[in-house]
Automatic annotation (TrEMBL):
Domain of life: Bacteria
Pfam families linked: DUF7793
Identification of the protein by name: DUF7793 domain-containing protein
InterPro entries: DUF7793, TPR-like_helical_dom_sf
Residues of the DUF7793 domain: 402-492
Amino acid sequence: MQRDLSPFVIAELAARESWKRRDYAAGYAEAGHAAELAQEAGDELRWWKMVLLQAECLRDQGSIQECQQLAVELAAHPVANSAPDLGARAAILLAHSLQGLGRLPEAVDAATTAARLVAGDFENVYLHIQAQQALIAALAESGRHEDAWQECLDLESLLTDHVDEDTAGKAYWVIGNVAFLSNRVNEGGHYHDLAAGKLSPSQDVDLWARFNRASAEMRLQAKLGDAATLRCIERAELATEVVGGSERDILEMSLVRAHWYYLTGDMGTAISLLTPLRSKFPILATQTAAEATFILGRALMAQGHEAESLQMLDEAATLFDTAAAPERSATVRGFIASAEPSDRRHQQFLQGGVMPEATVFPGAAPLQPEVPTRPAPAPGVACTRLHDLAVKAVLPRGADLNETATAQLYSRIGELAGNRRVAVVLELTGVRSVNRAARAAYAAIPSVSAWAILGESPVDRLLGHFLLGGEFNSVPAQYFTAENDALDWLSRLDDVL
Protein backbone atom coordinates (compact mmCIF):
# COMPACT_ATOMS: atom_id res chain seq x y z
CA MET A 1 0.00 0.00 0.00
CA GLN A 2 1.43 3.36 -1.04
CA ARG A 3 2.08 5.83 1.77
CA ASP A 4 0.37 9.21 1.81
CA LEU A 5 3.09 11.75 1.08
CA SER A 6 0.92 14.82 1.49
CA PRO A 7 2.18 15.56 5.06
CA PHE A 8 5.75 15.51 3.71
CA VAL A 9 4.87 17.76 0.78
CA ILE A 10 3.19 20.26 3.12
CA ALA A 11 6.18 20.21 5.48
CA GLU A 12 8.62 20.65 2.57
CA LEU A 13 6.70 23.60 1.15
CA ALA A 14 6.58 25.24 4.58
CA ALA A 15 10.35 24.79 4.99
CA ARG A 16 11.16 26.24 1.57
CA GLU A 17 8.79 29.14 2.10
CA SER A 18 10.48 29.98 5.42
CA TRP A 19 13.88 29.85 3.71
CA LYS A 20 12.67 32.23 1.00
CA ARG A 21 11.45 34.61 3.73
CA ARG A 22 14.92 34.34 5.30
CA ASP A 23 13.43 32.88 8.47
CA TYR A 24 16.22 30.33 8.67
CA ALA A 25 15.45 29.08 12.17
CA ALA A 26 11.91 28.16 11.13
CA GLY A 27 13.17 26.73 7.84
CA TYR A 28 15.65 24.51 9.67
CA ALA A 29 12.99 23.17 12.04
CA GLU A 30 10.42 22.59 9.28
CA ALA A 31 12.98 20.89 7.04
CA GLY A 32 13.90 18.64 9.98
CA HIS A 33 10.24 17.68 10.38
CA ALA A 34 9.99 16.93 6.65
CA ALA A 35 13.17 14.83 6.84
CA GLU A 36 11.64 12.76 9.67
CA LEU A 37 8.50 12.16 7.61
CA ALA A 38 10.58 11.08 4.60
CA GLN A 39 12.65 8.75 6.76
CA GLU A 40 9.50 7.16 8.19
CA ALA A 41 8.31 6.60 4.60
CA GLY A 42 11.65 5.02 3.69
CA ASP A 43 12.34 7.71 1.08
CA GLU A 44 16.09 8.36 1.24
CA LEU A 45 16.14 10.87 -1.62
CA ARG A 46 13.53 13.13 -0.03
CA TRP A 47 15.25 12.73 3.38
CA TRP A 48 18.59 13.74 1.82
CA LYS A 49 17.13 16.83 0.15
CA MET A 50 15.55 18.02 3.38
CA VAL A 51 18.80 17.58 5.31
CA LEU A 52 20.48 19.56 2.52
CA LEU A 53 17.94 22.35 3.08
CA GLN A 54 18.68 22.22 6.81
CA ALA A 55 22.38 22.67 6.06
CA GLU A 56 21.62 25.62 3.77
CA CYS A 57 19.59 27.25 6.55
CA LEU A 58 22.52 26.78 8.93
CA ARG A 59 24.88 28.37 6.40
CA ASP A 60 22.61 31.33 5.77
CA GLN A 61 22.06 32.06 9.47
CA GLY A 62 25.81 31.93 10.11
CA SER A 63 26.08 28.54 11.86
CA ILE A 64 29.03 27.55 9.68
CA GLN A 65 30.53 24.81 11.84
CA GLU A 66 27.21 22.95 12.07
CA CYS A 67 26.65 23.45 8.34
CA GLN A 68 30.05 21.96 7.52
CA GLN A 69 29.36 18.88 9.63
CA LEU A 70 26.08 18.23 7.84
CA ALA A 71 27.68 18.92 4.44
CA VAL A 72 30.33 16.25 5.08
CA GLU A 73 27.60 13.72 5.91
CA LEU A 74 25.60 14.68 2.82
CA ALA A 75 28.60 14.44 0.48
CA ALA A 76 29.51 10.99 1.83
CA HIS A 77 25.96 9.60 1.63
CA PRO A 78 25.12 7.13 -1.17
CA VAL A 79 22.41 9.50 -2.46
CA ALA A 80 25.10 12.07 -3.33
CA ASN A 81 26.83 9.45 -5.48
CA SER A 82 23.63 8.46 -7.25
CA ALA A 83 23.50 11.50 -9.56
CA PRO A 84 26.03 14.19 -10.58
CA ASP A 85 23.70 17.06 -9.69
CA LEU A 86 23.16 15.78 -6.14
CA GLY A 87 26.89 15.28 -5.61
CA ALA A 88 27.53 18.78 -6.92
CA ARG A 89 24.96 20.31 -4.54
CA ALA A 90 26.61 18.69 -1.55
CA ALA A 91 30.10 19.65 -2.72
CA ILE A 92 29.09 23.30 -3.30
CA LEU A 93 27.64 23.52 0.20
CA LEU A 94 30.76 21.90 1.62
CA ALA A 95 32.94 24.43 -0.23
CA HIS A 96 30.92 27.34 1.18
CA SER A 97 31.18 26.05 4.74
CA LEU A 98 34.88 25.25 4.49
CA GLN A 99 35.57 28.74 3.16
CA GLY A 100 33.59 30.21 6.04
CA LEU A 101 35.79 28.28 8.46
CA GLY A 102 38.98 29.51 6.76
CA ARG A 103 39.89 26.06 5.44
CA LEU A 104 40.57 27.46 2.00
CA PRO A 105 42.58 24.64 0.31
CA GLU A 106 39.82 22.18 1.22
CA ALA A 107 37.20 24.64 -0.04
CA VAL A 108 39.01 24.87 -3.37
CA ASP A 109 39.07 21.07 -3.63
CA ALA A 110 35.35 20.75 -2.83
CA ALA A 111 34.35 23.43 -5.35
CA THR A 112 36.59 21.85 -8.00
CA THR A 113 34.85 18.53 -7.41
CA ALA A 114 31.44 20.18 -7.78
CA ALA A 115 32.40 21.87 -11.04
CA ARG A 116 33.84 18.66 -12.46
CA LEU A 117 30.65 16.72 -11.68
CA VAL A 118 28.41 18.96 -13.80
CA ALA A 119 30.84 20.35 -16.40
CA GLY A 120 29.47 20.10 -19.93
CA ASP A 121 25.97 19.15 -18.75
CA PHE A 122 23.55 21.70 -20.20
CA GLU A 123 20.75 20.52 -17.92
CA ASN A 124 22.87 21.44 -14.89
CA VAL A 125 24.33 24.72 -16.14
CA TYR A 126 22.99 26.60 -13.09
CA LEU A 127 24.76 24.18 -10.76
CA HIS A 128 27.93 24.59 -12.81
CA ILE A 129 27.65 28.38 -12.40
CA GLN A 130 27.22 27.97 -8.63
CA ALA A 131 30.21 25.64 -8.49
CA GLN A 132 32.37 28.09 -10.45
CA GLN A 133 31.35 30.91 -8.13
CA ALA A 134 32.25 28.82 -5.07
CA LEU A 135 35.61 27.94 -6.62
CA ILE A 136 36.33 31.55 -7.55
CA ALA A 137 35.45 32.77 -4.04
CA ALA A 138 37.76 30.24 -2.39
CA LEU A 139 40.63 31.01 -4.77
CA ALA A 140 40.21 34.77 -4.38
CA GLU A 141 40.15 34.58 -0.58
CA SER A 142 43.28 32.42 -0.75
CA GLY A 143 45.05 35.24 -2.58
CA ARG A 144 45.22 33.21 -5.78
CA HIS A 145 43.79 36.02 -7.86
CA GLU A 146 45.22 34.92 -11.21
CA ASP A 147 43.82 31.41 -10.79
CA ALA A 148 40.50 32.96 -9.79
CA TRP A 149 40.57 35.14 -12.90
CA GLN A 150 41.05 32.12 -15.16
CA GLU A 151 38.05 30.47 -13.53
CA CYS A 152 36.11 33.70 -14.09
CA LEU A 153 36.70 33.37 -17.82
CA ASP A 154 35.26 29.85 -17.66
CA LEU A 155 32.31 31.20 -15.69
CA GLU A 156 31.65 33.88 -18.31
CA SER A 157 31.50 31.21 -21.02
CA LEU A 158 28.52 29.67 -19.21
CA LEU A 159 26.50 32.92 -19.30
CA THR A 160 24.60 32.30 -22.53
CA ASP A 161 21.20 33.66 -23.51
CA HIS A 162 19.64 30.61 -21.83
CA VAL A 163 20.71 31.83 -18.38
CA ASP A 164 18.27 34.13 -16.58
CA GLU A 165 19.26 37.74 -15.93
CA ASP A 166 19.39 37.44 -12.14
CA THR A 167 21.87 34.54 -12.29
CA ALA A 168 23.92 36.30 -14.95
CA GLY A 169 23.95 39.51 -12.92
CA LYS A 170 25.28 37.75 -9.83
CA ALA A 171 27.94 36.00 -11.93
CA TYR A 172 29.10 39.27 -13.53
CA TRP A 173 29.25 40.74 -10.02
CA VAL A 174 31.66 37.95 -8.99
CA ILE A 175 33.77 38.37 -12.13
CA GLY A 176 33.99 42.12 -11.57
CA ASN A 177 35.08 41.60 -7.97
CA VAL A 178 37.96 39.36 -9.05
CA ALA A 179 38.94 41.82 -11.77
CA PHE A 180 39.25 44.58 -9.17
CA LEU A 181 41.17 42.31 -6.79
CA SER A 182 43.63 41.40 -9.55
CA ASN A 183 44.15 45.07 -10.50
CA ARG A 184 42.15 44.77 -13.71
CA VAL A 185 40.31 47.97 -12.92
CA ASN A 186 38.78 48.59 -16.35
CA GLU A 187 37.52 45.02 -16.55
CA GLY A 188 36.15 45.33 -13.02
CA GLY A 189 34.11 48.37 -13.97
CA HIS A 190 32.95 46.68 -17.18
CA TYR A 191 31.68 43.53 -15.47
CA HIS A 192 30.03 45.47 -12.66
CA ASP A 193 28.26 47.57 -15.30
CA LEU A 194 27.04 44.32 -16.89
CA ALA A 195 25.84 43.16 -13.48
CA ALA A 196 23.97 46.43 -12.92
CA GLY A 197 22.23 45.94 -16.26
CA LYS A 198 21.10 42.41 -15.36
CA LEU A 199 20.12 42.74 -11.70
CA SER A 200 16.71 44.29 -11.24
CA PRO A 201 15.59 46.35 -8.23
CA SER A 202 12.04 45.13 -8.86
CA GLN A 203 13.14 41.53 -8.26
CA ASP A 204 15.13 42.11 -5.07
CA VAL A 205 15.70 45.67 -3.88
CA ASP A 206 17.83 44.43 -0.96
CA LEU A 207 20.17 42.58 -3.36
CA TRP A 208 20.26 45.67 -5.58
CA ALA A 209 21.34 47.77 -2.61
CA ARG A 210 24.01 45.26 -1.55
CA PHE A 211 25.38 45.00 -5.09
CA ASN A 212 25.67 48.74 -5.59
CA ARG A 213 27.28 49.23 -2.17
CA ALA A 214 29.75 46.41 -2.84
CA SER A 215 30.51 47.76 -6.30
CA ALA A 216 31.09 51.23 -4.88
CA GLU A 217 33.43 49.78 -2.24
CA MET A 218 35.40 47.91 -4.90
CA ARG A 219 35.66 51.02 -7.06
CA LEU A 220 36.77 53.14 -4.11
CA GLN A 221 39.37 50.58 -3.07
CA ALA A 222 40.61 50.70 -6.69
CA LYS A 223 40.90 54.49 -6.25
CA LEU A 224 38.22 55.31 -8.80
CA GLY A 225 36.66 58.67 -8.01
CA ASP A 226 34.53 58.83 -11.15
CA ALA A 227 30.88 59.35 -12.02
CA ALA A 228 30.23 55.59 -12.23
CA THR A 229 31.32 55.20 -8.61
CA LEU A 230 29.05 58.04 -7.53
CA ARG A 231 26.11 56.44 -9.37
CA CYS A 232 26.71 53.19 -7.48
CA ILE A 233 26.72 55.06 -4.17
CA GLU A 234 23.53 56.96 -4.98
CA ARG A 235 21.72 53.80 -6.15
CA ALA A 236 22.79 51.98 -2.99
CA GLU A 237 21.66 54.85 -0.75
CA LEU A 238 18.34 55.05 -2.55
CA ALA A 239 17.67 51.31 -2.41
CA THR A 240 18.73 51.11 1.25
CA GLU A 241 16.30 53.88 2.15
CA VAL A 242 13.47 52.26 0.17
CA VAL A 243 13.86 48.85 1.86
CA GLY A 244 14.44 50.40 5.28
CA GLY A 245 17.96 49.11 5.82
CA SER A 246 19.21 48.10 9.25
CA GLU A 247 21.29 50.46 11.36
CA ARG A 248 24.37 48.53 10.26
CA ASP A 249 23.42 48.99 6.58
CA ILE A 250 22.99 52.73 7.08
CA LEU A 251 26.31 53.02 8.93
CA GLU A 252 28.13 51.11 6.19
CA MET A 253 26.61 53.43 3.58
CA SER A 254 27.90 56.40 5.59
CA LEU A 255 31.37 54.88 5.44
CA VAL A 256 31.13 54.42 1.67
CA ARG A 257 30.00 58.02 1.23
CA ALA A 258 32.81 59.25 3.52
CA HIS A 259 35.35 57.27 1.48
CA TRP A 260 34.01 58.99 -1.64
CA TYR A 261 34.45 62.44 -0.10
CA TYR A 262 37.95 61.52 1.03
CA LEU A 263 38.91 60.27 -2.41
CA THR A 264 37.62 63.41 -4.11
CA GLY A 265 39.41 65.71 -1.69
CA ASP A 266 36.56 66.89 0.55
CA MET A 267 38.32 66.06 3.82
CA GLY A 268 36.06 68.13 6.04
CA THR A 269 32.90 66.30 4.97
CA ALA A 270 34.64 62.93 5.22
CA ILE A 271 35.73 63.71 8.79
CA SER A 272 32.25 64.97 9.74
CA LEU A 273 30.76 61.63 8.60
CA LEU A 274 33.42 59.38 10.11
CA THR A 275 33.80 60.99 13.54
CA PRO A 276 30.29 60.15 14.83
CA LEU A 277 30.59 56.73 13.21
CA ARG A 278 33.20 55.76 15.79
CA SER A 279 30.62 55.59 18.59
CA LYS A 280 28.76 52.95 16.54
CA PHE A 281 31.74 50.63 15.99
CA PRO A 282 30.26 47.83 18.18
CA ILE A 283 27.53 47.45 15.54
CA LEU A 284 30.04 47.06 12.69
CA ALA A 285 32.37 44.23 11.78
CA THR A 286 35.88 44.80 13.15
CA GLN A 287 37.41 45.11 9.69
CA THR A 288 34.77 47.66 8.67
CA ALA A 289 35.59 49.70 11.78
CA ALA A 290 39.26 49.43 10.86
CA GLU A 291 38.61 50.74 7.33
CA ALA A 292 36.64 53.67 8.74
CA THR A 293 39.43 54.52 11.17
CA PHE A 294 42.08 54.29 8.44
CA ILE A 295 40.19 56.72 6.21
CA LEU A 296 39.61 59.05 9.15
CA GLY A 297 43.31 58.98 10.00
CA ARG A 298 44.31 59.87 6.46
CA ALA A 299 41.71 62.64 6.23
CA LEU A 300 42.97 64.15 9.49
CA MET A 301 46.53 63.93 8.20
CA ALA A 302 45.48 65.74 5.02
CA GLN A 303 44.10 68.60 7.15
CA GLY A 304 47.26 68.86 9.21
CA HIS A 305 45.96 67.26 12.44
CA GLU A 306 49.07 65.12 12.83
CA ALA A 307 48.79 63.95 16.42
CA GLU A 308 45.15 62.98 16.11
CA SER A 309 45.83 61.38 12.74
CA LEU A 310 48.62 59.17 14.08
CA GLN A 311 46.39 58.09 16.95
CA MET A 312 43.68 57.03 14.46
CA LEU A 313 46.19 55.27 12.21
CA ASP A 314 47.65 53.30 15.10
CA GLU A 315 44.13 52.32 16.14
CA ALA A 316 43.33 51.26 12.56
CA ALA A 317 46.38 48.99 12.42
CA THR A 318 45.39 47.38 15.71
CA LEU A 319 41.83 46.83 14.50
CA PHE A 320 43.09 45.20 11.30
CA ASP A 321 45.30 42.91 13.41
CA THR A 322 42.27 42.01 15.53
CA ALA A 323 40.27 41.27 12.36
CA ALA A 324 43.05 38.92 11.13
CA ALA A 325 43.77 41.20 8.16
CA PRO A 326 47.59 41.42 8.27
CA GLU A 327 47.91 42.84 4.75
CA ARG A 328 45.67 45.79 5.57
CA SER A 329 47.50 46.31 8.85
CA ALA A 330 50.79 46.39 6.95
CA THR A 331 49.30 48.95 4.55
CA VAL A 332 48.41 51.22 7.46
CA ARG A 333 51.85 50.91 9.04
CA GLY A 334 53.42 51.59 5.66
CA PHE A 335 51.36 54.74 5.34
CA ILE A 336 52.47 55.88 8.80
CA ALA A 337 56.11 55.23 7.94
CA SER A 338 55.88 57.12 4.65
CA ALA A 339 54.17 60.18 6.14
CA GLU A 340 57.33 61.93 7.30
CA PRO A 341 56.72 65.22 9.13
CA SER A 342 58.65 67.27 6.59
CA ASP A 343 56.47 65.99 3.80
CA ARG A 344 53.05 66.13 5.40
CA ARG A 345 52.39 69.82 4.95
CA HIS A 346 53.92 70.14 1.51
CA GLN A 347 52.46 67.33 -0.54
CA GLN A 348 50.02 68.51 -3.16
CA PHE A 349 47.13 66.45 -1.89
CA LEU A 350 47.33 68.09 1.54
CA GLN A 351 46.71 71.43 -0.15
CA GLY A 352 43.41 70.28 -1.67
CA GLY A 353 44.85 69.26 -5.04
CA VAL A 354 44.68 65.87 -6.73
CA MET A 355 44.58 63.02 -4.25
CA PRO A 356 47.31 60.44 -4.94
CA GLU A 357 44.58 57.81 -4.58
CA ALA A 358 42.24 59.29 -7.17
CA THR A 359 42.32 57.87 -10.66
CA VAL A 360 42.28 60.74 -13.13
CA PHE A 361 42.29 60.05 -16.87
CA PRO A 362 44.93 61.85 -19.00
CA GLY A 363 43.74 65.28 -19.94
CA ALA A 364 40.89 65.27 -17.40
CA ALA A 365 40.42 68.11 -14.98
CA PRO A 366 41.45 67.34 -11.40
CA LEU A 367 38.61 66.22 -9.16
CA GLN A 368 37.50 69.00 -6.86
CA PRO A 369 35.66 68.45 -3.58
CA GLU A 370 32.13 69.45 -4.55
CA VAL A 371 32.03 68.77 -8.29
CA PRO A 372 31.03 65.07 -8.20
CA THR A 373 28.08 65.67 -5.90
CA ARG A 374 26.72 68.81 -7.58
CA PRO A 375 23.76 67.88 -9.82
CA ALA A 376 23.62 69.12 -13.38
CA PRO A 377 21.36 72.10 -14.00
CA ALA A 378 17.78 70.85 -13.99
CA PRO A 379 16.29 70.67 -17.51
CA GLY A 380 12.88 72.20 -18.09
CA VAL A 381 9.76 70.49 -16.75
CA ALA A 382 7.04 70.11 -19.41
CA CYS A 383 3.62 70.88 -17.92
CA THR A 384 0.20 70.60 -19.56
CA ARG A 385 -3.26 71.38 -18.22
CA LEU A 386 -5.62 68.42 -17.85
CA HIS A 387 -9.34 68.50 -17.08
CA ASP A 388 -10.81 69.25 -13.66
CA LEU A 389 -7.93 71.16 -12.12
CA ALA A 390 -5.25 68.62 -12.83
CA VAL A 391 -1.79 69.21 -14.26
CA LYS A 392 0.49 66.69 -15.91
CA ALA A 393 4.22 67.35 -15.39
CA VAL A 394 6.73 65.35 -17.44
CA LEU A 395 10.26 65.32 -16.09
CA PRO A 396 13.09 65.10 -18.66
CA ARG A 397 14.67 61.69 -19.22
CA GLY A 398 18.15 61.42 -17.76
CA ALA A 399 17.55 64.31 -15.39
CA ASP A 400 19.05 64.56 -11.91
CA LEU A 401 16.23 66.10 -9.89
CA ASN A 402 17.16 68.75 -7.38
CA GLU A 403 15.57 71.77 -5.73
CA THR A 404 15.86 73.77 -9.00
CA ALA A 405 13.59 71.31 -10.81
CA THR A 406 11.09 71.58 -7.94
CA ALA A 407 11.10 75.37 -8.16
CA GLN A 408 10.50 75.15 -11.92
CA LEU A 409 7.50 72.88 -11.37
CA TYR A 410 6.09 75.17 -8.67
CA SER A 411 6.38 78.13 -11.03
CA ARG A 412 4.74 76.29 -13.94
CA ILE A 413 1.84 75.15 -11.73
CA GLY A 414 1.28 78.74 -10.74
CA GLU A 415 1.25 79.83 -14.40
CA LEU A 416 -1.34 77.17 -15.30
CA ALA A 417 -3.59 77.22 -12.25
CA GLY A 418 -3.13 80.61 -10.67
CA ASN A 419 -3.94 80.56 -6.96
CA ARG A 420 -6.02 77.36 -7.11
CA ARG A 421 -4.78 74.04 -5.76
CA VAL A 422 -4.37 71.32 -8.37
CA ALA A 423 -3.73 67.58 -8.54
CA VAL A 424 -0.46 66.70 -10.27
CA VAL A 425 0.35 63.67 -12.42
CA LEU A 426 4.14 63.63 -12.18
CA GLU A 427 5.79 61.46 -14.85
CA LEU A 428 9.38 60.52 -13.96
CA THR A 429 10.02 57.89 -16.64
CA GLY A 430 13.76 57.70 -17.37
CA VAL A 431 14.79 60.12 -14.61
CA ARG A 432 18.28 59.24 -13.39
CA SER A 433 18.20 60.33 -9.75
CA VAL A 434 16.25 62.22 -7.09
CA ASN A 435 18.09 63.78 -4.18
CA ARG A 436 16.71 64.14 -0.66
CA ALA A 437 16.41 67.91 -0.86
CA ALA A 438 14.24 67.59 -3.98
CA ARG A 439 12.06 64.99 -2.25
CA ALA A 440 11.41 67.35 0.67
CA ALA A 441 10.78 70.28 -1.68
CA TYR A 442 8.23 68.39 -3.79
CA ALA A 443 6.27 67.40 -0.68
CA ALA A 444 6.26 71.03 0.47
CA ILE A 445 4.66 72.57 -2.66
CA PRO A 446 1.51 74.13 -1.15
CA SER A 447 -0.52 74.39 -4.38
CA VAL A 448 -0.70 70.61 -4.94
CA SER A 449 -3.79 68.79 -3.64
CA ALA A 450 -2.65 65.26 -4.62
CA TRP A 451 0.29 63.54 -6.30
CA ALA A 452 0.00 60.68 -8.78
CA ILE A 453 3.55 59.57 -9.53
CA LEU A 454 3.85 57.88 -12.94
CA GLY A 455 6.64 55.62 -14.22
CA GLU A 456 7.39 52.54 -16.31
CA SER A 457 10.58 50.70 -15.40
CA PRO A 458 11.71 49.06 -12.14
CA VAL A 459 14.11 51.97 -11.62
CA ASP A 460 11.21 54.42 -12.10
CA ARG A 461 9.30 52.49 -9.44
CA LEU A 462 12.28 52.68 -7.08
CA LEU A 463 12.64 56.45 -7.58
CA GLY A 464 8.89 56.94 -7.31
CA HIS A 465 8.69 55.20 -3.96
CA PHE A 466 11.75 57.11 -2.76
CA LEU A 467 9.94 60.34 -3.67
CA LEU A 468 6.83 59.13 -1.86
CA GLY A 469 8.96 58.54 1.22
CA GLY A 470 9.05 62.30 1.76
CA GLU A 471 6.62 64.36 3.85
CA PHE A 472 3.54 63.71 1.71
CA ASN A 473 1.36 63.17 4.78
CA SER A 474 -0.86 66.19 4.21
CA VAL A 475 -2.06 65.21 0.70
CA PRO A 476 -2.85 61.88 -1.04
CA ALA A 477 0.06 60.44 -3.01
CA GLN A 478 0.50 57.14 -4.88
CA TYR A 479 2.64 55.50 -7.59
CA PHE A 480 1.18 54.22 -10.91
CA THR A 481 2.43 52.62 -14.12
CA ALA A 482 -0.53 53.69 -16.28
CA GLU A 483 -1.81 57.25 -16.72
CA ASN A 484 -5.45 56.14 -16.94
CA ASP A 485 -5.14 54.41 -13.56
CA ALA A 486 -3.61 57.55 -12.07
CA LEU A 487 -6.42 59.78 -13.41
CA ASP A 488 -9.09 57.32 -12.26
CA TRP A 489 -7.57 57.33 -8.76
CA LEU A 490 -7.53 61.12 -8.68
CA SER A 491 -11.17 61.29 -9.82
CA ARG A 492 -12.26 59.14 -6.88
CA LEU A 493 -10.58 61.29 -4.24
CA ASP A 494 -12.66 63.76 -2.27
CA ASP A 495 -11.87 67.49 -2.42
CA VAL A 496 -9.03 67.00 -4.92
CA LEU A 497 -10.51 67.63 -8.36
